[in-house]
Amino acid sequence: MPLHDDPCPMLKHLLIAHDLSAEADLALQRAVALAHQLGARLTLLHVRGEQDELGAVRAQLSDRLNSAHGIEARLHIAHGAVVPEVLSALHSLEADLLLVGRHHRAVAEGFAGTTLEQIAQRCTVPLLLAVQSAPWQSALAALDFSPCASRALQLSASLLTAEARLQALHIHEVARLQADDDPAALAFERDLFDTLLAEEVRHLPASAPRLQACWRAGEREQCLQQVLAETAPQLLALGQHGRGALSDTLLGSLALQWLREPPCDLLLVP
To answer: Which end of the chain, N or C, is more open, meaning fewer C-beta atoms within 10 Å of its C-beta?
Structure first.
């Protein structure tokens, strides 16, 4: 059962890692909207490998912060390698959420796939990969019996309006051809999930949307892809199993895949 004495943190400081790309601009729009919604402050982080043209870069980033009306926002420029500087800023600035845009391999200083994956693997706070800026109307949270999956569900619920749709997906992982071979095992697993879901509902914030159950039995990737295609969520929330690495215990390999080709905004919660 989830360890609700270890809740997901209140989001009071959002850190957006910006590489001067259009993708990062979308992530900044999401960050500004969340900062307004949560009453949080915002820091825009840019990492430079050298110090030339710093004035022009600072001017470009300052212009982007003009969209942050009504919130406390500031600019932080660091020099060095992207991964250690982002992780260092998370710690030194005491950020509660890291936001990044979709990676793009065409820009040398951008978040190339391996760079983004390294950040995700070592990030100790929730990470939001934002690929669009429209308000979230639907979200899907993958829920197993781990504390990190519980935190992902609870955090996603706190980020949605009461009118949004939130589904909790549980997959009883078996080979596709064996999905119906043991009705007793399926019934037992479903009963456990129903108990888990009832416990999660008890801990949802008062403003959270109604939680809907989604149950599947079969192969993990096939079930997840099927539900994503059927529900088309705007936010996918996953628990990050294991600190220091995206493990393969439930969603790790798929999380890495979705970091490269996200189906929607992706929230990873350690």
So the answer is: N
